[in-house]
Amino acid sequence: METKGKILVTGGAGYIGSHAVIELFQAGYEPVIIDNFVNSQESALAGIAAILNTDVTCHRIDCTEVAALREVFQNEGNIAGVIHFAAYKAVGESVREPLKYYHNNVGSLVALLQVMAEFNVTNLVFSSSCTVYGVPDQLPVTEETPVKKANSPYGNTKQICEDILTDLANSDGSKIHTIALRYFNPIGAHPSAKIGELPLGVPNNLVPFITQTAIGIREKLTVFGTDYDTSDGSNVRDYIHVVDLAKAHVVAIDRLLAGKAKQIEMFNIGTGQGNSVLEVVKTFEKVSGQKLNYEIGPRRAGDVPKIYADVTKATQELGFKTELGLEEGLASAWQWELNLKNNKK
Ligand code: UD1
């Protein structure tokens, strides 16, 4: 079958990666997954196959291993672009085990860039994060908002990776073009409820904690502080539907393959809308019809009081705009949680 090109998706069995694989395929690309399944599950591959009615190739390797990467590039041939999702992402864990984060998040990027150069693969989309802005002085944050000292090793790995990509773009002779997407807070699941977020153990993130509480896996949600300088005192975030976020990667790949991208570009990928934790709880109750058991607790160390995206650059230069809102995100997350429960029966 003729496709628009083969796209290597590292971390393609993970939460955002699996949704991107679906959107890439449906946009006419041939996604090929690399995953080592340390923070993802084989069942994601079955979900992808069920949605697409076909299997997607998956190489079970660790992205920090140059030799293993080389073998994949060699065997696959003709790779048009790479989307690099594979990374650890738990802020608290990164404080306890910083070397694990530097090794995996920075090491995998360096190994990947090295092998891309060897095989003359020149298009890269990199998963960055709004965490690079730290506690911003102005809201909403634009791509020009200064990058502040990271408040966790996780955040620092994203800054370091952006720096590595910028240094490479400014170096002599590198042909690699990179679009770094700075994600805000991804939520929700595919409308089929066949793929979604699969946290291992107790979730760190808000939405899986909410859905697990509503279904009875957790006793109650703790809202981490209502004494912030926000409308209702709880933290404000920009929650983007994971399907919208996945589509941003297709737009970025299109731009790279069309030769329209500068050597390095950063884009905020959010909705432009801020919602508080308490608003998320209320919206969840509304769309799910479930009463959520929650309590107000103390602040969580390292939390940014308020952050949401200015999406002007993504809208104007990428032509990217989100289509789904908080309600759709939370409703789909709930369907996914219900589906997980039904499949266990
Ligand atoms: C953070 C990073 C983000 C990173 C993500 C990875 C920032 C601004 N964002 O997201 O870049 O990719 O971690 O995991 O640094 N909350 C509760 N109770 C809970 C869980 C969360 O009240 O049980 C609140 C948090 O205090 C926060 C909001 O919900 O205000 C969202 O939290 P979470 O889903 O963990 O994401 P961030 O911390 O925003």
TrEMBL record:
GO terms for biological process: galactose metabolic process. Coiled coil: none annotated. Homodimer. NCBIfam families: galE. It comes from the Bacteria. GO terms for cellular component: cytosol. CDD domains: UDP_G4E_1_SDR_e. Belongs to the NAD(P)-dependent epimerase/dehydratase family. Its cofactor is NAD(+). GO terms for molecular function: UDP-glucose 4-epimerase activity. Its EC number is 5.1.3.2. It comes from Adhaeribacter rhizoryzae. It is an enzyme of class 5 (isomerase). Residues 8-331 form the NAD(P)-binding domain. This is UDP-glucose 4-epimerase. It catalyses: UDP-alpha-D-glucose = UDP-alpha-D-galactose. Gene3D superfamilies: NAD(P)-binding Rossmann-like Domain, UDP-galactose 4-epimerase, domain 1. Pathway: Carbohydrate metabolism; galactose metabolism. The lineage of its organism: Bacteria, Pseudomonadati, Bacteroidota, Cytophagia, Cytophagales. Keywords: Carbohydrate metabolism, Isomerase, NAD.
